[in-house]
Every structure is written in C-alpha cells, then in structure tokens.
Amino acid sequence: MEKKILIQTKDLVKKFGEVEVLKSLSIHFFEGDRVALIGQNGAGKTTLIRCILGLYTFQGDLKVLKKHPRIDREYILNHVGFVPQIPPPLKMTVAEILSFFSRIFHVSQENFIEVANALNLEVEKHLNKPFLKLSGGMKQKLLIGLALGRNPKILLMDEPAANLDPEARTIFFDMLSNYRKDSLMIISSHRTDEIEHLINRVVEMDLGKIVVDKPFEKIISS
C-alpha cells in the first residue's frame, strides 16, 4: 500500500534579506514516518519547521495535509503538535495556558495535564504560577503535554528533550515509541543515539539543502 504524503515541498526557498537559508529544498514526509532531522547549527532545520508551521513566508511549494501553511494555518495547526527547543515567552499562568489551549483546540485540559504529569510535572501545584517563572524543565514538560495531549496527526519537535531530566527523558521517549502509528513524527536532534530506537528515516541538512535522506537501517549498516 502506498504511504500517504503528509508534508511535501518542491523548490522551497526561504531568504532572510539576501541570505538564502533554504535552497530549492524538495522532500516528502509520509504517514508513519519517524524522521531524525539532523545537521549542524545553521543548516536550516528550524527554518524548515517554522515554514511548515506557517510562521514564515517562503518561495516555492509547500503543502501540509494538502493545504498551504500560510493560507490554511488554522486548519493545519489543528493537526500539528509542536515542541520547540526554546520555550516561548508566554505571559500567562499555567492555568490560563491550559484553558486557552483547551478552548482553541476543543480538547479537555485533562488530556494536557495527564501527559505533563506523566513526566512528573505535578501540574496542579503550579496552576497559578506564571509560565515565565517555571524552570526550563517544567516549561518543556508542559509544552510536551500541550503537543501530545491533542494526539495530532503530525508531531514536529525541535530538540524536545533538551531541558528534561534523565527520568523525564526516558518517559518522554517511551511515550513517543507508543504514539499513534499513522502519525508523522519529525524530531530535530543533535543526539541521534537517544532516538535511534524511534526512527525509521534520517534526513540530514547542510547549508539549506538535503544532503542525506535514507532509511535508518541503511545508515547503521553502511
């Protein structure tokens, strides 16, 4: 059975001023893919993720679930969960964030809390705290809860375990290994040893281009 394409790009270009960060990038990501997106800092990994999320304008063709990420951003974000490397400066309390996400995505707050608590956050103790006052690890646990708690079709994660303690990292990767099998998971990471049990494909970027795109088993056998 042919796998369904969930994200596709053709000749995707992203410039910041005169600097071309993505250079005629063409790639497909499929249902069931577990992708390690690797490359040095400045390779274009985060820029690609932000284009997929509709955060940047771009040239060329990019479709997410057959939709344009800028024009159909609301639809796409309903089906995409995102865990950033650097937590956003949300000026809300934990309770306000949970309420906001529950309202806009029509998902019970309990779904978010269940995931975050599984990572040992103990959300109920921090409901009245401003998000900005949480530690880096606590922020990351909440953001993971907000992403996975919606059970989205696509998971985009940019160094998602960077601020997690060792126990939470183990729990988090176990969650990912049991995540819905029809989803697409793209994990940008510098530590492929942590995620090698999760992935079936490695995509390496360098200077805005795809330089490696292989099944993971071919990487380790070469």
Specify the CATH class of the domain at 5-87 and 151-221: Alpha Beta
By DSSP, the count of extended strands is 9
Q: Biggest sheet: strands side by side, in what order? A: 5-6-7-3-8-9
Tell me the strand percentage band.
25-35%
Structural class given helices, strands, pairing? alpha/beta
Note poorly predicted spans.
Answer: none
Main pleated sheet:
6 strands, mixed
Architecture (CATH level 2) name of the domain at 5-87 and 151-221: 3-Layer(aba) Sandwich
Computed CA radius of gyration, to the nearest angstrom: 17 Å
Give average pLDDT, whole number. Answer: 94
Instruction: Could you tell me the CATH topology label of the domain at 5-87 and 151-221.
Output: Rossmann fold
Gross morphology is globular
Distance between the termini: 28 Å
Tell me the name of the CATH homologous superfamily of the domain at 5-87 and 151-221: P-loop containing nucleotide triphosphate hydrolases
Number of helices: 8
> What percentage of residues falls in helices of 4 or more residues?
25-40%
Spell out the helices and strands N to C.
EEEHEHEHHHEHEHEEH
